[in-house]
Amino acid sequence: MGNTRILILSLACVAFLSVVKALSQEPELGSARVVFQTSYGDIEFGFYPTVAPKTVDHIFKLVRLGGYNTNHFFRVDKGFVAQVADVANGRSAPMNEEQRKEAEKTIVGEFSDVKHVRGILSMGRYEDPNSAQSSFSMLLGDAPHLNRQYAVFGKVTKGDETLRKLEEVPTRREGIFVMPTERITILSTYYYDTEMDSCEEERSVLKRRLQASFVEVERQRMNCFP
């Protein structure tokens, strides 16, 4: 009887730990990476396509169209968020028709259980939960009050040192917003695929091995048939 009770308790503990692990597990990042080259350094981020697929498709399409080039961070609130302006209003360069059409789309609120912690990307919106367009925030600290209220769609993968530089810029308060006193420009953007890069590297290694094998075969052939 005692052994049965111990076994039941052990199984219960294992089940509990599995649930805790599942709840605490971070969503899987997709293979796409985007780099914002700013006046303070580069920021790289990836997407959570299984968490917010419509949001990811929309933001990534805007990146591919060059929509965020010459845009800026209109809000920098230390320990809270660095927020990118709406593409339609934040760029210093004119937009073409395709960029404007995509930038002015509204995206359904894809709210999830992913926590708002430092490095997370979260869509901006108005009071309407389905009013997100192209403005989004990079979290500079934990913000649990945003959980399930704003759509998380990715996270910063490189460039935390750039975010820390942004936190040190002089700011001013305008209503609820803390804004930088100078324009923090997104000079340009680019994107790449980590899986493609991995494949290229594997192909390069294979090519080098084949070349080395060919050299070795030739060397042995010459030794056998002088």
TrEMBL record:
Keywords on record: Signal
SUPFAM superfamilies noted in UniProt: Cyclophilin-like
GO MF annotation list: peptidyl-prolyl cis-trans isomerase activity
Domain of life: Eukaryota
Cleavable signal peptide: 1-22
Cited Pfam families: Pro_isomerase
Residue ranges annotated for the PPIase cyclophilin-type domain, each copy included: 41-191
PROSITE patterns: CSA_PPIASE_2 (PS50072)
Keyword Disulfide bond appears in the UniProt entry: no
Annotated InterPro entries: Cyclophilin-like_dom_sf, Cyclophilin-type_PPIase_dom, CYP23-like
This protein's record includes keyword Kinase: no
Name of the protein described by the UniProt record: PPIase cyclophilin-type domain-containing protein
